[in-house]
Design brief:
- With about 750 residues, the protein is mostly beta strands.
- It has one domain (about 5-450, about 465-760): Maltoporin, Chain A (Beta Barrel).
- Helix content is about 5%, strand content about 55%.
- It is built from five helices and 36 strands.
- It has a 22-stranded antiparallel β-barrel. Strands 1-6-7-4-5 form a five-stranded mixed β-sheet. A two-stranded antiparallel ribbon has the order 2-3.
- Strand 15 (about 280-295) and strand 16 form a beta hairpin.
- The radius of gyration is 27 Å and the shape is globular.
- The two termini are about 40 Å apart.
Length: about 750
């Protein structure tokens, strides 16, 4: 299920405040408790890890069309892409070439990664940037975190803190391709009794750039809390639902040249050969979250926070399958038929429980945090046939369940982390984490093969480093970390299917031979920050053993299999700078130069006798040395310039801005052979945005003094570049012709397009 998890990105709205009489005192306590909760997985200013911060103002100015990965696209080493070609719908991101399953994502300390796939599905909350107060993006292994192990980067998000005063906001946005985004929030503020209530609702609609890339996404939130001087209790309910068109197939390079908005999802032919498209080729998912948090500030130095989270998820994706055999769906052949057209539904139903607790002590010379996280994911995978053109409408499809299998994954995670300050300049950092993971799979897969399998992994992930600050504006740091990551459910499933097929053909020795990945991450960096100038540079060495990569090897029924690559690495340098020479001008940029290599790699291709008969002969192997890791560009860069022409003005015009940014992504190979023929050409894309905020006067009679009416206008792909940003490949080898056959899917991005947003905050 491609879009089922991300509503969990609102599933940890944890209280961050303690009551106080004065507004200033309340803000201070709110910030202190906020820091105590979020710090369980967030780096501080002297923590020797590589990270950047994205604040609320920057998030507020971002394009309302974009999901969070697209909003983070300008950060160092980040490459973001949207399957539908715009910013709404299926979006994903990589950091230093590390894909989504290798990026740990938390919101207020609660992991959002799906327990089975280890992915985060960002499609469910298109307006997330308007509901969070800050994002910290750590690159490399970073600090220890709850849930799926960070294996390339981690994203730590924090929701807005509880404020002492009531407030509300409404945002409405319109744009190209029938896009409409609305977001509404309201908060009671702290009452004299310590009670408060928050609520939020968002909806995003778009037709998408390519055919069938529509999206209709909803989310809702309600929070009821209470706090006094030392205690905070908060109950959060969240709901999210999404209905989106399937776009993950991509299109061929030939189709890209003739019609780049084409999408083959749901295409079929009638008996006369006419082309039709199934109108419900969709992904559908809904989640409900219930979360209870208690935070206790024993003293100004010692704080304890614990959260219980329950998430219920249900959803499915629906497809039209043309020319499939009845045996494929474990159905007997009707008289005179052995295949037909089918409408199928593959569903998920899951329950996810998390208990997270941590204790933090802070003094003038040390910060120590210890935490425990326990989780249990119980998910059913269900396949059913809804209709067949041969069996017709009268057949009892409800009595036939195509497959039903279960995945149970449990995890125990404990860590202790400390920062110790020596001589007001040197900070020593140590972080020790234990992860225990237990996985049980059972029941038949879609072709009837039993997935019965159990596994468990025990990991110890130590981290250590030093940070030296010889002046308030400058510091250097160095760190070393060891990380592990277990295989995902799909990695194991495909090996089970392959082993079963091989055994049926009399081939022995093929089983579930897959190992966890291991990485050593070394980071050395320098930072300088003054009022007008900030600079950052760091060198990273990410050394992998047994990295799990798509090698191109397929099972006999066409499944892609990941295998362990014994030795690989990502090594690079990251540079970033921001300069404000004048009150009305700010310029900045970043660049990553890297090498991403596999030491020894063997590609596997299905082998057939000739192009006419396609008789399967086994697999053809080709070996490579020091080849490039797929989808890992060696150059990624960004430049930005922002003008505030009236910054010195005392009136409302001082809020006006015009911002231009450009993103460059170097060549990316979509297999592991370093072939330019199988690569995404380098591209450069520029965006333009402009905004203005108008304070509304209380003299109008219906607004408060802090009411603001804001407008912004966004132009994406300003120079109308025609490019694609992602791709996949399947190749077969023909022995007689000594040649290859290839199927490729690429993902076109939209040409120049526009968004307009109006918001009212009071």
């Amino acid at each position: 299920m491609r879009g089922f998890l991300f509503v969990a990105a609102l599933s940890a709205l944890i209280p961050f405040s303690a009551a106080a009489v004065e507004k200033e005192a309340a803000d201070e306590k709110v910030e202190r408790l906020d820091s105590a909760v979020v710090s369980s997985s967030r780096a501080g200013k002297d923590t020797p890890v590589t990270f950047t911060m994205v604040g609320k103002d920057e998030l507020r100015r971002s394009n309302p069309l974009n999901s969070l990965p697209m909003n983070l696209a300008l950060q160092p080493s980040v490459v973001s892409v949207n399957e539908g070609g715009t910013g709404l719908g299926y979006s994903k991101m990589s950091v230093r070439g590390s894909k989504g399953s290798q990026v740990n994502v938390t919101l207020n300390g609660i992991t959002l990664n799906d327990a089975e796939s280890q992915e985060v599905f960002w499609v469910n909350i298109p307006a997330l940037s308007s509901m969070i107060s800050s994002v910290q993006l750590q690159r490399g292994l970073g600090t220890s975190a709850n849930g799926a192990g960070a294996f390339g980067a981690s994203i730590n998000m924090s929701t807005a803190s509880v404020g002492p005063d009531p407030h509300a906001s409404a945002e409405l946005s319109l744009g190209s391709y029938g896009t409409f985004v609305s977001t509404f929030t309201a908060a009671s503020g702290l009452t004299k009794s310590g009670l408060y209530f928050n609520a939020a609702y968002s909806r995003g609609l778009t037709d998408g750039y390519i055919r069938n890339a529509f999206a209709d996404v909803h989310s809702a939130m309600a929070v009821l809390g209470w706090m006094d001087e030392r205690n905070s209790l908060r109950l959060t309910w969240l709901m999210g639902s999404q209905k989106t068109g399937i776009t993950w197939e991509g299109i061929s390079p030939e189709q890209y040249e003739s019609d780049r908005r084409y999408n083959p999802a749901g295409e079929y032919h009638d008996s006369f050969g006419n082309v039709h498209y199934y109108d419900n080729e969709t992904d559908n998912y809904a989640q409900h979250h219930l979360q209870l948090n208690y935070t206790r500030s024993f003293t100004d130095r010692l704080t304890w926070s614990t959260t219980f989270n329950y998430t219920r998820g249900d959803g499915y994706y629906e497809n039209y399958k043309a020319g499939k055999s009845f045996s494929k769906y474990l159905m007997p052949d009707p008289p005179g038929y052995d295949e037909g057209d089918f409408i199928t539904r593959e569903a998920l139903a899951n329950d996810y429980f998390v208990l997270n607790t941590d204790l933090r002590y802070v003094s003038d010379y040390m910060k120590v945090t210890a935490g425990v996280n326990l989780s249990r994911y119980d998910g059913d995978h269900i396949g059913s046939v809804l209709w067949s053109n041969v069996l017709g409408d009268d057949f009892d499809y409800g009595s036939h369940e195509w497959y039903l299998n279960r995945g149970l994954k449990q995890e125990a995670n404990a860590f202790v982390r400390g920062e110790f300050l020596f001589a007001d300049r040197l900070t020593a950092f140590a972080d020790l984490q234990y992860r225990g993971v237990w996985l049980d799979m059972s029941g038949p897969e879609d072709d009837g093969v039993l997935l019965d399998h159990s596994d468990n992994w025990q990991f110890f992930n130590p981290r250590a480093g030093l940070s030296f600050r010889w002046a308030p504006s400058s510091r250097v740091y160095a760190s070393a970390a060891l990380g592990h990551r277990e295989p995902g459910r799909s990695d194991i499933k495909e090996l089970i299917l392959d082993a079963n097929k091989a055994a049926s053909a009399g081939v022995s020795g093929r089983g579930v031979d897959i190992r966890p990945e291991k990485m050593v991450d070394i980071e050395v960096g320098y930072e300088y920050m003054s009022e007008k100038l900030s600079l950052a540079a760091n060198i990273y060495l990410m050394e992998y053993w047994d990295m799990l990569l798509e090698t191109g090897k397929l099972t006999d029924v066409g499944y892609a299999i990941k295998e362990n690559v014994p030795r690989s690495w990502r090594r690079g340098i990251e540079l970033a700078a921001s300069w404000k020479p004048l009150a009305w001008l700010q310029v900045g940029g970043n660049m990553t130069l890297s090498t991403n290599k596999i030491k020894s790699y063997t590609a596997y291709y299905e082998m057939y006798d000739n192009m006419n008969d396609w008789n399967y002969l086994g697999q053809h192997q080709v070996s490579f040395e020091n080849t490039d890791i797929l989808m890992s560009p060696s150059v990624v860069g960004m430049a930005n310039v922002t003008f505030r022409p009236f910054a010195s003005s005392s009136g409302s015009w001082n809020s006006a801005y015009l911002s231009l940014n450009g993103k460059y992504v170097g060549r990316q190979y979509y297999d592991n052979t370093s072939s330019d023929e199988r690569s995404i050409p380098a591209y450069f894309v520029a965006d333009l945005s402009a905004g203005y905020e108008l304070p509304l006067k209380k003299s109008l009679g219906f607004v408060q003094d802090d009411t603001v009416l804001a407008f912004s206008f966004h132009v994406n792909n300003l120079f109308n570049r025609m490019y694609f940003a992602d791709a996949w490949l399947w190749r077969a080898y023909f022995q007689h012709e000594d040649s290859f056959y290839a199927e490729t899917g690429i993902y076109p991005q939209a040409p120049v397009n526009f968004m307009f947003k109006a918001s009212l905050r009071f």
